[in-house]
Amino acid sequence: MLPTRITRQLAISHLSAVFTFGLLVCATATGYAQAGQVTTSNRITRPVDDAARVVLRGNVHPLAQARFDRGEASASVSTGRIMLVLKRSSEQQTTLKQYLDDLQNPGSPNYHKWLTPEQYGKQYGISDTDLATVTSWLQSQGFAIDKVSAARNVIEFSGSAGQIQRAFHTSIHSYVVRGEQHYANASDPQIPAALAPVVAGIASLNDFHPRSHATRSLRGRYDTESKTIKPDLTLFDRSNKPLLYVDPADAATIYNTPNTALNAAYHGTTYDGTGITIGIAGDSEIALQDVANYRATFLNDTSINHLPNVIVDGNDPGINGDAIEALLDNEVAGGIAPGAMINFYTANNVDFQSGLFLAIYRALDDNAISILNVSFGACEAAQGASGNLQILEAWEQAAAQGISVTVSTGDNGSAACDDPNSEMTAINGLAVNGLASTPYNIAVGGTDFDILGTQFNSYVTNSSSGNAPYYGTALKYIPENPWNDSTATDFATAANVTTSGNTPYIDSNGNNNIAAASGGISSQAVCNGAIDQSGNCSIALTGYSKPSFQKSLTPNDGVRDLPDVSLLAADGQYGATWAVCADNLANGDPTQNYTDCQTTNGQLTANTTFTGIGGTSASSAAFAGILALVAQAQGGARLGQANHALYNLAKNHPAVFHDMTAGNNSVYCKSGSPNCAANNFLNAASSLSPGGYDAKSGYDLATGLGSVDVSALVSNWSNAKLTSTSTSLQINGSTAAVNAKHGTSLNFDVTVTPSAATGDVSIVNTSGVINNGTQGFLTLSNGIASAAINSLPGGSYSMSADYGGDDSYAASQSDSINVTISPEGSVTALSVNTYDAMTGMSLGSVSTAPYGSLF
User: In this predicted structure, what is the pLDDT of residue 198?
Assistant: First the structure.
């Protein structure tokens, strides 16, 4: 029997929060900022008129197509808890961006001064009055208000499809896609125009939920003679080919983790995550006995102290098809950091809302974790404006609270809009995972040990001591390549995959696959022409703008690139996979009498089984565990958006990373589909890399910065702080207030010190970036940037210069300068185009000077 201290905590309705948000709850823990006295203005300025509406564009799922449409859904279909995503004012958004920059700037008084959810909502949420107006309107449409987040960024509400159709003037239809029934809105929703200043969208009005990134591999059995785990030959004809089932001891050896239980010597200091709490988000329950078996088997830990705390938000989802994902995440993260506590947040999927997002927002509101792992994905392009905003808002909030978010990039290679579980060929072109593509999360890709195909015995022993926790058989670091089954060959004869002459993998049934670690460019942005010698390209900036930490080391594409880092995601094709302890229901094979990870007197019993699992779910969970070791080494402090430190280390301490230079994540595609090259592999030659998303020296879109030497990462982390900067602005050579007529050209001169700082600066007012003809961004040269701008809007406001930072230098903002732009004198001019009445051909135009005559 497991102890009752492992509790399931049900969500408490926050209905009363609508009336109590005026109270500010301040954290007392060291390192938390005191929220400033921010006055949040009311932005709903007119009565709500249901007849005056605006359309929330870009919110129809791409699979809501006529060919899949089975007609309008019943009005009684339940929505479950869906989210109304709220909108900040432009002033709040500008202030939030600056605060998030300050959190990573050692020279700022706000450095690592994390906010609580209540403080975040007080400063960056909507006003009490506006909140009451929005909730009242929802209730007037018949919806129940289930919860208002403490951060004031989402309202959870529920009702029926009929109420959705009436309230948001969109029709909910039933669709059948690949044999599965789905519900989705058939047109963009509408909201009353009065609410538009504070409502960003509805997330979501469909049930195309994110999918797990766990990939099943081969089962194994414990061999008592060699005291190792071997492929189960009674089920899979492996012709006695060896397979490395990676457990915590193996991971400690391969990635050099300074772990107390598994690697006792680390410069006299060991770390196991003690004092750190890792959050895992999911949409299934788990069998805690499986986690207990895993810890007893591989960590020699039979206590209950580090079993997950299961926190259910709302209705319990029970053990479902994603239970294997939940077990993988909890076991691998806990195996890397066995001393850490784990809070497993889960919620039930409902018709119009993924339980995953309910779990994520619950974890953020609880604010009890330092790291949050999410091993799910969804096509970025399919999320729509509201769905992507729901994701971005969550990760921005996490960054403000100091929570490091690790997200798996996906198991569909460079084709993140295709399903590796049901598709053998990619058809939707290059794409990325929308849960991983924001600037505020760490995107974790996947690797494989291709070299084991020919040199297995050089890296893995054929026998172990058989003493817990030393069942590991890895001998040393194993060179890595991008995980890619789509180009794999039989691993017994495989050599490293290169991009020259890719050939598709074909199994014994003649099937191809698109299983590979995902990576690529936000929103499928591509170059509009050839790449010049400097690697520059003309690009449509449809994705997230390139974050400051990626400015120096990633391709010059202007957008967010994935992944950031990578770790093992292999599923056995090349001779390695992760070992997991799973029960029958989680394994999905109740016809077999499997019992995983059984021990007697602390030793594995003969022929006990193991579940093999791969996919970037494993690599993402492993990196969450690694960050727990880093956080412990930093005295238990939260790390926040840790990419700032990772890219800084990659530039200044490259030995922290294992760089991969061979292989790719290109997958097999249907001829004629987007980005499909002549050899039927997705190819990005028209965007960035001449041969596709290839592994190469330095950063690449297949493995990011590479995998990590954890001991080196831990020991160098304190050296990864950004250098502080200061930014100054002059307008027409002065810092004095400016008065000018509309259309007047003003000279803006920006100086950033130290002058070695690279990247861009932007000229902003309280409404955001001012467009100077080049998206409002100026490139620094020796710390200086200048521009003449004649497009300032009329009115009185403050102007400042915003330096975005890079991987070595922190962002900073200049003092503001007051600017008043008055109307220019008006003139009237008339221009007439003339045409030949017989031929319709233009005869040119005739113009008049102001007040003049045409004739």
Answer: 96
Task: Please tell me whether residue 234 adopts helix, strand or coil conformation.
Answer: coil
The tally of CA atoms less than 13 A away on the side-chain side of residue 523 is 19
Query: What would the pLDDT profile of 195-219 be if each residue is shown by its tens digit?
Result: 999 999 999 899 999 999 998 888 8
Q: Dihedral through CA 562, CA 579, CA 624, CA 373, nearest 10?
A: 70
Q: What proportion of the chain, given as a percentage, has pLDDT over 90?
A: 60
Whether the Cβ atoms of residue 32 and residue 113 lie closer than 8 Å to each other: yes
Spatial separation of the C-alpha atoms in residues 144 and 159, rounded to whole Å: 6
Q: Which two tokens stand for residue 460?
A: 């893995």
| Max Cα–Cα distance, the chain, nearest Å | 107
Strands 244-246 and 576-580: parallel
Q: Please classify residue 712 by burial: count the beta carbons closer than 10 Å to its beta carbon, then call 0-12 exposed, 13-18 middle and 19+ buried.
A: middle
Residue that the structure tokens 């029997």 belong to: 1
What CA–CA distance (Å, rounded) separates 531 from 558? 13
| CB-neighbour burial class of residue 653 (10 A; exposed 0-12, middle 13-18, buried 19+) | middle
Distance of CA 764 to the CA centre of its chain: 27
**Domains by residue range for the chain, with CATH:** 17-208 (no CATH), 215-719 (3.40.50.200), 726-822 (2.60.40.10), 827-855 (no CATH)
Would you give the distance in Å from CA 732 to the centre of its chain?
42
Alpha-carbon gap, residue 412 to 517, rounded angstroms: 6
Q: Once rounded to an integer, what is the mean pLDDT over residues 818-830?
A: 77
pLDDT of amino acid 603: 80
Please state the pTM of the whole predicted model. 0.88
- Contact, 213 vs 616, CB < 8 A? yes
3-state secondary structure of 548: helix
Residues paired with 386 in a beta bridge: none
Name the DSSP class of 35. Answer: P
pLDDT surpassing 80 at residue 342: yes
> Residue 72 pLDDT more than 90?
yes
How far, in Å, are 252, 565, 695 from residue 700 at the CA level? 25, 10, 6
CB atoms within 10 A of CB 501: 8
Q: Tell me which residue has tokens 């004809």.
A: 237
Strands (E), 622-725: 657-658, 707-708
